[in-house]
Amino acid sequence: VNRAEMYCSELLNGLIDGKADPVISCETGSIANIDGRNSLGAVVSKFAMEVCIKKAKATGVGFVVCHNSNHFGIAGFWSQMALQEGLIGFAFTNTSPFMVPTRTDKRAAGTNPIACFCPAAGGDSFQLDMATTTVPAGKLEV
User: Fold this and answer.
1) I need a surface site. Which of 22, 26, 92, 127 has the fewest CB within 10 A?
2) Which residues of 61-94 are buried (b: 16+ CB within 10 A; e: fewer)?
3) Does 65 share its domain with 80?
4) Do 85 and 19 belong to one domain?
5) Are both 86 and 69 inside the same structural domain?
6) What is the spatial distance between Cα 34 and Cα 48, in angstroms, rounded to a whole number?
7) Which of 54, 73, 92 is the last residue of a domain?
8) Most distant CA pair in the chain, distance
9) How far is CA 31 from CA 10, 59, 64, 103, in A?
């Protein structure tokens, strides 16, 4: 919800194409490259994880990368899709520079979210959803 204003502004100002559908630009049995065609990051991410799950079920493993996309929301949401199918799910992205490294005065590293969800015995699961910085950007914005 805290990003709704950003998404709406980017759509209204033509920075994101709200009518574009992502496409598979290149693929093999286990691997796919998704062109997001400047669509909403959530649209691209859902499409990508659906492709990845399908490939993992067919071949035992699926790897999907995306380009020409936008902010993808909460990384764990996409990993959860794989977990619900009984699969290990990874989701991660790069971000614009946000963090100022030690002994510098300029932003040089992004928060670069990482999520890994793994099924475990008895219906339990391991769930990691984190940023590579001390505090995720979303927490600072709230």
Assistant:
1) 26
2) ebebebebbbebbbbbbbbbbbbeeebebbbebe
3) no
4) no
5) no
6) 7
7) 73
8) 49
9) 30, 10, 6, 40
- The token pair at 131 is 């940023």
Residue in 52, 4, 45 with CA at minimum distance from that of residue 29:
52
**DSSP output for 57-114:** HHHS--EEEEES------HHHHHHHHHTTTS-EEEE------B--TT-SS--B----E
Residues 93 and 38 occupy one common structural domain? no
Q: Does 68 share its domain with 90?
A: no
Report the chain's C-alpha Rg in angstroms: 16
User: Smallest Cα–Cα separation from 64: which of 41, 83, 84, 44?
Assistant: 44
d(CA 89, CA 99) in angstroms, rounded, equals 27
Q: 121 is written with which tokens?
A: 């015995």
pLDDT in tens, 21-77: 999 999 999 999 999 999 999 999 999 999 999 999 999 999 999 999 999 999 999
Instruction: Write out the residue range of the structural domain in which residue 56 sits.
Output: 1-73
